[in-house]
Each structure stands twice: as C-alpha cells, then as structure tokens.
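Suppose you are handed a protein chain with no further information: no name, no annotation, nothing but its sequence. What can you learn? This example shows the usual starting point.
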Amino acid sequence: MIYFTSMLYNTRQEAYYLYIILCNDGSFYTGLTDDLVKRFEEHVNGVYETCYTLKRRPLILKYYETIPFLKDATEREIQIKGWSKAKKVALIQGNFHMLQLLSQCNNLSHHKYKDLNKVPDLDQPLDSSSTPLRLARASSGQLKAGILGGGQLGRMLLQAAANYPVETFVMENDPDSPAAHLCHHFIKGDITNFDDVYNFGKGLDAITIEIESVNEDALEKLENEGVKVYPKPAALRIIKNKILQKHFYKDHQIPTSEFIITQNLQGLKQQENFLPAVHKLAIGGYDGRGVQIIKTREDMEKGFDAPAVLEKMVNIKKEIAVIVAVNDKRETTVYPAVDMLFDQRLNLLAYQVSPADLPEKLLWKVEAIAMKVVKELDSPGIFAVELFVDINDNAFVNETAPRVHNSGHHTIEANYSSQFDMLWRIMLGFPLGSTEHILPAAIVNLVGADGYTGDVHYEGLNEILKIENVFVHIYGKKQTRPGRKMGHITIVSKERQELVHQANRIKQTVRVISTA
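A reasonable first move is to predict its three-dimensional structure. Written in structure tokens, the prediction is:
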C-alpha cells in the first residue's frame, strides 16, 4: 500500500518541480517534472518500474521545490542527485545549518553526523484509496504560512513575503482576487466555512487573516493542533463582534463612547433620548458598511433590524489610528500615530497624514490606550486601534482591527519596517522591526467614482506620477463600482504642509472610472 504525507495545493503559476520521494527501504528517488501530481501517480502506478525493485518501492513524497526555468531546474536536479543521503535528509528537514556543515565537511563518520543517516520518521499515513490530490504538501524546506482572504491586504502581505524564506498559501472564493497570482499556492474556498478553513490550515505552520469574517472555530481547532494563528482566535472572537468588543473595552476600563445594545429596529426606536448616536451592526460591517448615523427620530428608519451597538456620538476633533505589533514573546512596538480624515458620505478613510499632529501629552495618552487594548487582548499579531479625540482632548477607542490595516499602508515607503514586513517577522519568529519614520507621509485612497461600474480605468495617473516622492499602489481589481477600494497613493515629504497639499491635489486629479 502506498502512503502519502498530506494534501497538495496546486500552484497556478507554470513551474518545474524538483522532488524527492522516500522509498520503503530508506533510500531516496530524486526527479524533475512540470506536473507533480501526475508524476507521483505515475510512480505509484508503475510507469517508472525500472527505477524500483521488489524491495524498493515509492512510499512518500517528502520534499519538493518550485523552479521557474528548465535550465536552472535541470542543474538543480543534477546537483541534488549527487548529494549524499545525509545532505538530502538535512534538506528535507529544513536543517540548513546542518546542510551547510555537510557541504563543508566530507568526514561523515564524525559522531555529530551519526543521526543523519537514519531515515526520517514517517508522517501519519493516509489511505491511498483517497484522491491523488492528497499526496502533497510535502516539505519544500520552508515554513508554510497561509492567508485567509485574497484582497488588497493579502496582496501587500505577499509582496512583503517575497523578502523572507516562506512558502505562501492563500484561500479565497475568487480566483481572480488581488492576491491570487502572487502566492505560491492558491486554494479556492470559503473563509467562513469550518471545513474549508480547517482543511486549508492543517498542513501549515502559521496562518493569518486579512478580514475578520473568517471561521474562528476552525482557527481555534487548528491552534489546538499546533498551528500558530495570528491573531489568536480568542482575540478575533472578541473583535469581530462589536457587541463583545464594546463590552471588552468597558470590562477592562478602556475609554470608549457610551453605548446601548439593540437587538432589532424596534429596540432602536425606544432609544430616542440617546440621540445623536451611531448604529453599528454587531457582525458583518466592513469598509463603511453596517454603520448608520442616527441624529433624529426620522433617521431611526435607517437603523438595523438585527443585533447592533448604538454608540453615543462624540464631538470629534480628530480621528487617530495607532498600530501596535506584538510577537509570540509579547514584546511590543508601536508605530507613530496617524491623523485620519474620513469621507463622511462613504464612511471610508479619504486620506491620512503620519505622524499625527498631537500635543505630546495627548500623544502619550493615545499610545497608552492603544497599548492597553492590545495587552488585554493577549495575542500576537498586528493591531490597528482607531480612536476619537474630542474637543476637550479626551481620547476614546472607536474600534480595533486585529490585522494589517488601511491606516498603515504608508509604512511601506515611510517606515523602516512596514506593517506587512512586521507581520512576517512575527509569524516567522524573527525580531521585531523598527517602526521609526524614514520620512513623514500621507496616503490617499483611490475609490470607485460615483456613476461608474465596469472595467476599471485610472484617470490622471500620468500627471500624478510626475510628482516627486509619490508611490502608486493599484490593487489589481478588474471591475470598479462606486465606493470600491481600488488602490492608494503614498506621498512622502519632510514638510507636513506639502503632504496635505499633494494629498488634496491627488484627490482632485485622480479618478477611478470605468471604460464603458
């Protein structure tokens, strides 16, 4: 009977695969193919019978690596075929330190190498009667990290991942999503479905999210089985439900606006004395959706006939965001606070400036509040804490996002370690990076213009790209619609006045429209 290690996730990009099969006599077979699943089936079905004997049969696919060019792949195959068994074992185990030592030392009789000639322990066998696609996620020698969601946040995470030794997996329903073509392995699936999320994550070393609406029960099971989850499912469960989130702030003496819980529209209509207020759906609100401003009795008809939070409206002077990074050792670092300016019609971030223009004592206050939020959540990861500052300089937590966030996009160019780079450092166990500014920055969100739906066209980009220190990020979405996030533009400058001027210029110049 043939046994397989775990499930193979097909990569969408064309490539050659250098692979190593462990045989039942402890030897290895090394080969090259452009179709890993088909090739292993051929080994199993006896197509390459001359490679084996009655005592030597293919057992487990233990290792593979992806190589883009045939010449390079052929040279790599010749190289590894010439390696000793000890070196192949070190490669399979991802023990690159030992691999380097073996490359430098030919005396394999030394006691320090005695264990290398042992056949590695077999993984828990799976029944070969199941689908051939169960044969792989064999070791590629790198840590495997997954992202739930394939939008622009996943896209920018993958751009940062290119700098690290990590094999990336993305699960998303849409195979044309912004992140789909940048990962090593794309899996079509439903991030809200328990089985899809669990099966996606069970062969990974680490997993993260780019949106809160994922199945946290599956993540909790994965965490219990040893997969590192960022953020921890317990923290995600609190944050994704705004009712639980508001109670969390109250229970931990974290300043937040007054609130009342409403279960339906009828319950909302009984709170006229609490107005003006903001009504927020408990679950499912995102990017301005699931939020309604209720100032008068007549406005109550716009409220939600579902469990929600009714927050007392704050007389806002400033809206601030603070991003906090936390590693597995609970070491923390804080990015400089950001001034956020919102499009009140869309309830989306219009543009922002970093660092925030705050008096020193107020800056200390908002940073301390953000740190307390993250400390009480007790989870590694990246957390964006959004706060209101009122006319009396009181600070209140509005919401927390347990992931990379729109308010941190400027860090790609403006900070030594971007929020995306920082999350990879955390997930892969590297030291936290520097959050210090290289230069102050502003970003402008590019959203679909009113009245345009269809194939996207970016009007005015040519003029904007003539400006010094401007960086354009297009998310790769093919279709635009009113209010849809399609990209952002970052400006860096020593002068805050210049940042504001150029941000306004960009807003007046660039339009996201459709070709039709």
